[in-house]
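Input chain follows. Return structure tokens only.
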Amino acid sequence: MKRHYLKQVIAATLSVAMILTTMPAAKDGTAVYAEELQESSNESENIDYSIMDTSEMIGEAVQNDRSASEAEVLTDAYIAPDGETADMQAEEMPKAPQGYQLEGSTGEETVVTEDTEPEEETPATTEEVPTEEEISVTTEEVPTEEETSATTEEVPTEEETSATTEEMPTEKETSATTEEVPIEEETSATTEEVPTEEETSVTTEEVLTEEEQPVISATTVDMYPEVAGGTCGEKLTWSLSNGTLTIKGTGAMTEYSYDNRPWENDINSIKKVVIRNGVTTISPYAFYKCEKLQSVTIPQSVQTIGKILFAECAALKTVSLPAKVTTIPYACFANCTELQSIEMPGVTTIDDYAFQGLNMPGMQIGKKVTKISYLAFASARIKAYTVESGNPVYTSKNGVIYADKGKTLYAYPAGSTASSFAIPSGVTKIGDAAFIQAKYLMAVTFPSSVKTLGSSAFQGSGLRSVTIPDTVTSVDNFTFYESGVKTVTFGKGLKTTAYEMFEKCRELGTINFGGIQELDARTFAYCSSLENVTIPAGVKRIGNGTFGECWMLETVTIQGTLNCIPFQAFLNCSSLKNVIITGKVPDIYRASFLGCRSLKSITLPKTTTYVHPWAFETGTEIHCLNAAMKPFGKHGYRQLDTVSINGKYYYSKAYEVLNLVNRERAKNGLGKLYMNQELLETAMTRAGETAVCFSHTRPDSSLCFELNMDMSAENIAAGQTSAAAAMDSWMNSQGHRENILSKEVSNIGIGCFYHNGIYYWVQCFGTGSDSSNCKKPADTSKTQTIQIADSTFSDAAIGGGISFSFGEQKEYSYSMKLVPETTVLSKGQTTKVKVLLKNAGIDYWYATLNNSGITWSSSDQSTMAVSAGKVTAKKDGTATIKASLKYYSAKVNVGSKQLTKVEQFVSRLYTKCLKRSLDTDGLKYWNDMLVSKQKSGAEVGYGFVFSDEYKAKKTTDKQFITMLYQVFMDREPDQAGLTYWTGLLKDGVSREYVYHGFATSQEYTNICNSYGITRGTITLKQARDKNINLTRFVTRIYDKALARSWDESGLNYWCGQIQSGAMTPTQVAENFIYAKEFTDKHLSNTEYVKVLYRTFMGREADNAGLNYWVGRLNKGESRKVVLKSFAGCPEFKNIVKSFGL
């Protein structure tokens, strides 16, 4: 049974996602496959594509279709060896550190630092590095009088009060406000009072004695009411009064998120937090964004504090942690910009972003600290670090933290105003994020001992010129990301740059490549001051997006041999005018020069063999010095071969499909689709193309939509033998069904191409304004000429859109093979050789090429002459026959010799059984088996008759027996013999049983003797072939008891049970009545008795007997007792005896 295939694709102009799904089986039980490209609701220009594959699915990757005028966004994909996006194994790309994020929050709640660039990339967003005169100015300037309007918390004027974030309540509203309106005397003060020195202390618990409590008379207004309160743990309570949040009780606090704390609605009222002794754990987010919090008291009972605990508490100045707290968790004090001191005597671990954004004059790392995250001080402006003496892991010198006994420079104080720094000799590694956001640092001197630069080592720093010494051999991602570098000089030791190594260095204008051989992805992306780049001969590979978004780049010179110009390499370099390639570049991939609208022309060297259709803007003239390059797709060039196949266009079947489409649409209340002339011809062309490459990617590697831009979607299928079967397969798939039942489409083109015994079906959908069907052409034979890619190619992308590849992308390749009618000829004989081209989308399907464009040759024309696929044996010997296209070829050996008697016997089996000429390898194998007497004539015949090749013919019983007469009796069957043998097969014996009868016949004995070989025999192994009468008995039970034909496994089982003595014939018959298949019929007593009569008496029930047995059953007699009575009756014993059992 042929396997059916389907694929479906929709041309989308926005976000799309590819889904591969195994569809339900078609009605004939065959597997069908669907490839679905669905339009997504996401209209972002950043588009993700996922490929899900299974072992049986036909893979496909189709990306975004967008016009050349649309801007593309540089992606985060790693470089792949072929220049397209690499297999990321479903992992996200790394990102340069920018700040902590709230767990489970959306992008709107992401917390970024003051140094984070805005999302929109423009050259104007660069943060200016302070001048020498500005260095003395503190990080946080005091605003001038004019600037006070921009302060974070303004005091509104009388006119502005109506627009303030928190409006003053009216007289009627005061009863509903959470906070009391300040009395008249208080309104003159600022909204937030500045605490006195005594009030800012966090080490003393301010608890009034009983005598100090104010006495409030019944007529006095209570100025300190308890605003709120409740529980915050199993044994913990909280209360908020007069700006003081008090937590007391014993045990751990309930774990909260950033938006579900009990005091969430009151965080702007909290100025002081008092935690009583007995509390052991403080929840994450407990005091997050309490922006007025000035004082906190944490008792010695606390052992654990949660992440993001005090983040964004901008007024908090000092904190003292108890000795039992060992970890400062994630973002615990992030952006506490007024924090001046932290006591942490028991801390051993400091996690990511723990001190992000701090502006402290200094910080001491205790002697117990053994682990500091490299992101602990992200965006902090700490001016100096000191490490307490006795720390086993870290040391400090001149305010800098070192690790590994001084070999790793771990953290430089970003708040230092020093403009230069000399890294001490002996340092071998600059740690991850060691100099991150060191804005004032303009120059660094590297000692010769440095070998490694860590991830984000100088990210966001103020460095102006960087010279990487020869000793440096390794760098990690984001090394100088978004720094102030203007000039970079690579040393001789570093061979490969790092991902985004200099990305967003917007002042970078000069690059000296040194010993660099490979540029990793996005190394210089967004370097908007670059004007000229010369990629020297030493550089062999550049990564995806290496120079993407370099807006000022005007000239690029490529001097060496690059493996390719990859995906987005120069994306949106809008000023690029000149690309000079003096070296060698074989491939130019998708979107490599997209958005380079100033590039009017480019000349490609002779070594270039591939230009992706979406590599350049359509306005760029491409001049190829390689004369073999041919245009394909939207604006691509590649080397192409041309093949021709013969087939038939079935317009009649296409219109049958149209009727079925409109029938389905009518069922769903949808209007008709009309056959459009252009789409009809497109669909026919596409149907022929799928015989060569079953995919939405065309045989030349371009996308199907590039054949006809009026097409909005495509369904394809193969292997279905009728219009109804093709429609049935499509309607069994959600994606194909959606195309057929789309409200958006109004016209259609349908193709049906028949080639090599296979029908190929295509539906091309459109949105035209047709109001009637085009004229139906007559079915016609067609020789279709098709251009095929010269080498392996991947799924075509729709436009230049962004592509993430999770899992392996589908690849397509062609290969040729030659199939001669025979590989062994006698002198003077001829044979024809077929040229087959493997379908690039279905590995085991082949198209048969005609001779157009094929060059034939023989390794020895005097032995085997060849012309236009016809081989003639001139003399005994062997020659290699070769058929060649421009880029593909295939060979086969053909020989000539006088066949021996045994070889003639084997040749006879090829001709009469397999209906083809022999092949050299097969001839040798079977000849050796017979000559060495390892196999007899019967065994060799069995090898042919039960070979996979013969089984694939799926012959009927009549065809099978006819072949046996021709091969083993050397004559056509007589009617009596044909009836006898087909009857045996219906009675349940196997084809092996029938073969045994022919292979042991006198006629076959005579044939074997005539060729001088031993006839021999075969052993029958199936139980049903041991005793034909027993087999007939069991098949009779299937018919009478279950009212169906036998199945092979069941028949062998029951025959085996009787043969082995495990069951008697009577017990086997009873077991059929006990079988679940029988009991599931839920027969009435009357029908049950009728079956017993047929099975055990061999006749229909008489009325008297039927009434008798049904009456017994109706009175409560069990069916088992009745069955035993029938099974033991004389009639059944006679039936058993009649079969000789």
